[in-house]
């Protein structure tokens, strides 16, 4: 991935950052033609508003981006994502910015510059930013997010279990990590629910197991890797399949987070588990009312083959629980109920750990990666207990779907556990968040690691 960063010795043009409150004072210190130009074009320092400043030859010599008001900044993440509005060339930040504002501006620029160009050249862009001193960590964050977006945006024809494995192997090779893969008969015997969900497809299921780091606390990330979800025999309507290439968004997000952790060389023993499957329709597909026996030994009645994500995650979480870990986090595009509850911007998470919940909420705000806690509401436990088996993968009634899914997963997790039910998609263009695949929760987790794991 090639982030839009200038070479260190590049000659760059200034990009001034000016807030609405300080605009008049700033204009007073500028040459009269600059002040007249900005006033004449109606520039008021609005958040993200960009104006090019012409030089003596008429070509852009500098640019100004509005920093808005404090109220506007609270409402908009990455209002300084100017990359898409600037002409090609090299730029550097100017203006009186706090370290926090500078970091937001740099990360907003890098995230806003993302384009998915695998199948078609994209117009615009070409602006590069000279990285300010002290912002090297932001490069790792942006690279992780770009990786996540690329994986989610890739159509399922080119991002099946084979390709997801290849992407994981490439990440492992880049950072000297070890990847092992369980497939075929070993998968059937050791991970029966992963095998059952993926067996309906000719693109064979597997479990990816990446390990990195020899010292420090142990962090296990489990990501849902359903590369396409037809719903299985409980077939989705056509409209509901349109975004199902993103049903591996949990896997894409944990790989992006792993990229951040490894690039920053954090003192962590990292493990990433991804059940990579395609939920398809065939004579081998698992059926409604089948009862599956999980890796943990718990039996599960299948009351909807479209609730497959929790099945594959359950076997992976059971494996994770067999080895001591200081923290286990699962991430999945799991339920429509989560989207109804909080919409596409927020990443809801579940945990019984109060300190972890507070750390994630604080880090989400700091990292401009908002998260919101939902409860493991134990009075709903009977809803996932069908009587004929230990567990029900799709309780009737349609209420509290995100919570019952999280309660289901908790039955398989061990130790300190956090579950994220993410959307993984940006419905329309927004500052720093182009329409399409989107990581959620990864930066919040990274920002919380000092509290969560003491690193």
Automatic annotation (TrEMBL):
What domain of life is recorded for the organism? Answer: Bacteria
Biological processes annotated in GO:
proteolysis
InterPro entries (alphabetical):
Leucine_aapep/pepB (IPR011356), Macro_dom-like (IPR043472), Peptidase_M17_C (IPR000819), Peptidase_M17_N_1 (IPR048816)
State the GO CC annotations. cytoplasm
Q: Which CDD domains match?
A: Peptidase_M17 (cd00433)
* A single MF term (Gene Ontology): metalloaminopeptidase activity
What keywords is this UniProt entry annotated with?
A: Aminopeptidase, Hydrolase, Manganese, Protease
Q: Residue ranges of the Cytosol aminopeptidase domain? A: 304-311
Question: Which Pfam families does the entry link to?
Answer: Peptidase_M17, Peptidase_M17_N_1
Q: What family classification does the UniProt entry report for this protein? A: Belongs to the peptidase M17 family.
Name of the protein this chain belongs to: Leucyl aminopeptidase family protein
The root-end lineage is:
Bacteria, Pseudomonadati, Pseudomonadota, Alphaproteobacteria, Rhodobacterales
